[in-house]
Design goal:
Number of strands: 4
Number of helices: 2
Structural class: alpha+beta
Strand order of the largest sheet: 1-2
Order of helices and strands: EEEEHH
Largest sheet: 2 strands, parallel
Strand content: 15-25%
Radius of gyration: 12 Å
Amino acid sequence: GLVTVASAKEASTISEHKELMFHPLPARGGEFSEQAAAIVESLVQGKDSVLIGPGLGQGPGSIAILKAAL
């Protein structure tokens, strides 16, 4: 199946895996920006499942991402 990964640009080693589609999310100082939620919201459209992994954090941007994904 098709796997799309949305993560902080700092996690770009993920993009070395050619079988994955990588979308960098805006982040600063280890925290996702709230603008990342709009990107996630568009990425989850039409997907059959969504996995939210460890390391998301608890900042405002992370909470916005979680709400957008649900």
